[in-house]
Design goal:
- With 863 residues, the chain is of the alpha+beta class.
- The protein contains 25 helices and 23 strands.
- The chain is 39% helix and 15% strand.
- The strands form six sheets. Strands 5-1-14-6-13-12-7-8-9 form a nine-stranded mixed β-sheet, with helices on both faces. A five-stranded antiparallel β-sheet has the order 17-16-20-15-21.
- A hairpin with an 8-residue loop joins strand 7 and strand 8.
- The chain is elongated, with a radius of gyration of 38 Å.
- It starts with a helix and ends with a helix.
- The structure holds adenosine-5'-triphosphate.
- The site of adenosine-5'-triphosphate has 16 residues, from helix 6 and strand 11.
Length: 863
């Protein structure tokens, strides 16, 4: 209690100095009290592990405990790594016994509306055999690694597949292929989503279950543990691809990237280009979207599924007319044990393998069927060649095998799920499917495996499976221990750094009520902003993206200082004589047109001209594109505002060579360009002309003669400004070419734009501009080009009205919302202040009490 006593001694003095608190219960007072409480040592009531008698040695004990826990954690982590390695080895052995290429057969149950034939053509014999009944006397037995009976649930199917999926986490590429005739349940096995939509929870297919399992791996502490030891990053990528014959549609639909590395959560798009240097698969138009949780992944997966091409065929109402491929790739980087490895899981719902003649397809369906069968045949050839260990593997025979190349070869596990129909009429297709599957399997295992050998193999496999389960259980236990220790460590570290959870809560309550001192000083005086001047969605968005100075930080400059580069809230001004439709349309920032001169007056602005690169860096940019011919009346209605996102700029040759020299003297900023910049707009009234907005201040190079011959309002005399860039502020085609040449020049010369604000129109009528405004404030709106241009042209240093320049003219015209706000505000402010003081006092008392001061504290307060 040494520390507490010491603090208490100083506490009574401090409290004496604060005794006038009844009168002085201000925010500063509350903050001071907060600081005092914060400086007090923590009590030991939440340190359950420590003996009370050891309080004097808190720090030493904490340090001792922390180092002990660190040691334990290191040992446990080491043990987990060892178990992981062991599990990998066992799994590998298990999978090797099972074979790198395994073939399962799933028999679909008879579904509603289907007639059961007298002769059951497909009979599952045991867990490995399927008997085909051709006639009563003629049967044929097919053996597979596993036969999934018609009654097998989706759970059972996934439990068989799960070990293969797990092997992907251990560095293998995995390929799971669903093969079979149309309507045999391939999509049901792979992509069934019902379980995730609240219906038939057990129905969900392999893909959603795999995604779930992967995220489970990320959430069950595995990843956290590795991250804690800073040696493992874990990223998964899912791709969804649909391939179509003859490139009829975009072959690639969706690529999802699951990020489980707890790093960046931002989304990104990424295209995979052909001939990637790392030799990976080149997939055009493959879009990669980084996702961070299961739901996000599933929603994107569903989206991709919707895009899959399906059509009604003779055999299936909604038959998949494509191969649907899902790729999950994982990048594990384990700095201590392994190098960075990227593994993939391909899950492919192959198109129906039926003969085209059977489906009686024609036209496009016929082409699709042919394409599907060709690629399936190519797939068979590749697997066949792999099984035979041929020197040449014909991957290039189809797109399908090209894409799957790195997941079909060595160091990968392939699982073929052959689906068959129970119907008699499908017997021919069933035979084809089973023969295809048998061809793959028999090559791997050899036809000669005896029953004894098989039983022995299966016995070993069962043992290995048990061993693996034991290892996984142990590993899970260790992970829980590690988690607990980490929590303990966290609380100890917090304690030793002097924070008290109770106090933290208390203080944060106080802080909620009291803005901190910094905030108070940094905040500008509360502006009485008319509601119509509040930032618009657009300006807020821009400030979020860092294009604007934040409101908090911006000190309120004088009106003159504000001109050149200050942030402009969005507001527009009431324009005398303007109709309501004009006032409703407004423009954020002044529009500024940069004329780029290249000696060809007839050249129009190209669509991809980069305005933002020319604008001053402090500016926010908008591109205004005209949808129609501009004229003074239609301009406001026709324009379309598009934020110019500062995306990678397509640099024109001219812009690249353009050197921007900025010299600010007073309010004037000069830009000099060393090279002639391309393209001058031929006509401002062209629908494709764009206006780069928000020039804080644009001026043309002084080398342009102020009386320079302006060919027209729509262009600049090339000869006079060769090598320079010219900045035009307001476009207007209502001013004729001849009579207003000078206007144009004047605008260019010395023009400054500032604070153009957009308004919500609801309160516009209640306000008006003050009468005593300086004469150089132009009352124009960019919507009224003609007025604006004329008036601005007369002003050398134009100044736009700021918030202060408005006065409330008619409060009855305020919107009901604004009135309601105004009425409730005063009362709520007073109430809030009072509650704040009361609450502060109560919390203060509680705070001291929680520190164990109790009686002493109140004594001190009394004295
Ligand atoms: N194991 C099963 N249990 C219950 N219903 C099933 C099962 N397998 C398939 N079905 C049903 O059979 C119908 C056809 O299945 P599905 O669309 O998955 O076939 P498919 O092989 O993917 O066909 P296609 O190749 O034409 O896309 C669906 O209505 C599906 O719900």
């Amino acid at each position: 209690m040494k520390g507490t006593k010491k603090s208490f001694r100083s506490l009574s003095q401090t409290i004496h100095s604060l005794l006038g608190f009844k009168n002085e219960a201000t925010s500063t007072w509350a903050n001071t009290v907060c600081d005092i409480i914060k400086s007090l040592p923590p009590t030991a009531d939440y340190e359950n592990d420590l003996d009370d008698s050891a309080n004097d040695h808190d720090d030493d004990l904490d340090a001792f405990l922390i180092s002990k826990i660190h040691g334990e954690l290191a040992a446990l982590n080491e043990e987990v790594s060892r178990l992981d390695a062991q599990r990998r080895r066992v799994l590998n052995e298990f999978l090797q016994l099972k074979g790198n290429i395994r073939v399962f057969c799933r028999i679909r149950p008879t579904i509603e509306g289907e007639k059961c034939s007298h002769l059951r053509p497909v009979i599952p014999v045991d867990s490995n055999g399927v008997l085909l009944n051709f006639t009563e006397n003629k049967t044929k037995l097919y053996n597979f690694d596993k036969v999934l009976h018609p009654v097998s649930s989706q759970d059972e199917v996934f439990s068989e597949i799960e070990p293969v999926i797990k092997s992907a986490l251990d560095g293998y590429n995995v390929c799971i292929l669903a093969y079979g005739q149309t309507g045999t349940g391939k999509t049901f096995t792979m992509a069934q989503m019902k379980g995730y939509e609240g219906r038939n929870p057990g129905f969900s297919g392999v893909v959603p279950r795999t995604i779930e399992a992967l995220f489970k791996q990320a959430a069950d502490g595995t990843i956290r543990i590795f991250l804690a030891s800073a040696c493992l990053k874990f990223t998964s990528v899912i791709s969804k691809i649909c391939s179509y014959p003859k490139q009829e549609r975009q072959p690639i639909l969706c690529h999802l990237d699951i990020d489980t590395s707890f790093k960046s959560k931002t989304s990104y798009l990424q295209s995979f280009h052909p001939n990637r240097p790392n030799g990976g698969i080149a997939i055009d138009n493959l879009v990669s979207i980084q996702v961070s949780n299961f739901n996000h992944a599933i929603s994107l997966y569903k989206l991709g599924s919707q895009l899959r091409s399906t059509a009604s065929t003779n055999s299936n109402k909604s038959s998949s007319r494509s191969h649907c491929m899902i790729r999950i790739s994982m990048t594990c980087s384990d700095a201590t044990a392994r190098r960075k490895i990227t593994n993939k899981i391909w899950m492919v719902d192959l198109g129906g393998s039926e003969r085209v003649l059977k489906t009686k397809a024609w036209g496009r369906r016929f082409e699709e069927g042919k394409a599907i069968n060709l690629s399936l045949s190519a797939l068979g050839d590749v697997i066949n060649a792999l099984q035979r260990k041929n020197s040449h593997i014909p991957y290039r025979n189809s797109k399908l095998t090209q894409v799957l190349k790195d997941s079909l070869g060595e160091d990968s596990k392939t699982l073929m799920l052959v689906h068959v129909s129970p119907k008699e009429e499908d017997l021919c297709e069933t035979v084809c499917s089973l023969n295809f599957a048998l061809r793959l399997r028999s090559i791997h295992l050899g036809k000669t495996e005896s029953n004894e050998a098989r039983e022995m193999r299966e016995g070993v496999m069962t043992d290995l499976q048990r061993e693996m389960q034991k290892i996984e259980d142990n590993r899970d236990k260790l992970r829980i221990e590690i988690k607990n220790l980490n929590q303990k460590l966290e609380s100890l570290t917090k304690t030793s750094s002097g924070s008290n959870p109770k106090l933290d809560g208390l203080l944060s309550s106080l802080k909620v009520l009291q803005p901190n001192a910094d905030e108070i000083t940094a905040m500008p005086p509360k502006p009485k902003i008319p509601s119509f001047m509040k930032p618009t969605v657009c300006s807020t968005r821009k400030s979020e993206t860092g294009h604007q100075t934040s409101y908090k930080k911006a000190s309120r400059p004088t009106r003159k200082k504000q001109l050149p580069f200050s942030r402009a809230e969005s507001v527009s001004f009431p324009i005398k004589g303007m109709t309501e439709s004009y006032s409703g349309s407004s423009i954020s920032r002044a529009s500024c047109l940069i004329g780029l001169n290249e000696g060809d007056n007839d050249t129009e602005f190209s669509q991809d001209t980069d305005f933002s690169s020319i604008s001053v860096s402090e500016s926010n940019h908008f591109l205004y594109s005209h949808d129609d011919k501009i004229n003074s009346s239609s301009y406001a209605h026709e324009k379309k505002r598009v934020p110019a996102i500062p995306t990678p700029v397509k640099k024109s040759k001219a812009n690249e060579q353009m050197e921007k020299r900025k010299s600010t003297s007073g309010k004037r900023t000069e830009y000099k360009f060393t090279k002639t910049v391309s393209k001058t707009p031929r006509s401002l009234s062209r629908p494709d002309v764009k206006f780069a907005g928000e020039a804080s201040r644009f001026e043309y190079n002084s080398s342009i003669p102020s009386t320079g011959s302006t060919k027209s309002m729509t262009g600049v005399d090339d000869s006079s400004i060769e090598g320079d860039i010219c900045c035009r502020i307001m476009p207007c085609d209502s001013i004729s070419e001849t009579s207003h040449q000078d206007d144009y020049v004047n605008i260019v010369d010395g023009m400054a734009i500032s604070q153009v604000l957009t308004c919500e129109t609801k309160d516009l009528e209640a306000y008006e501009l003050k009468d005593d405004l300086p004469a150089n404030i132009p009352t124009w709106d960019v919507n009224s080009c003609a007025i604006g241009l004329k008036e601005v042209s007369e002003v050398r240093t134009p100044k736009f009205p700021s918030i202060d320049d408005f006065v409330l003219k008619d409060s009855t015209k305020l919107s009901s919302e604004t009135c309601a706000n105004a009425q409730t505000k005063g009362f709520s402010d007073i109430l809030k202040e009072n509650i704040m003081i009361l609450y502060s006092i109560v919390l203060l008392g509680l705070g001291f009490e929680s520190l164990g001061f109790e009686h002493d504290f109140f004594q001190a307060l009394k004295s």
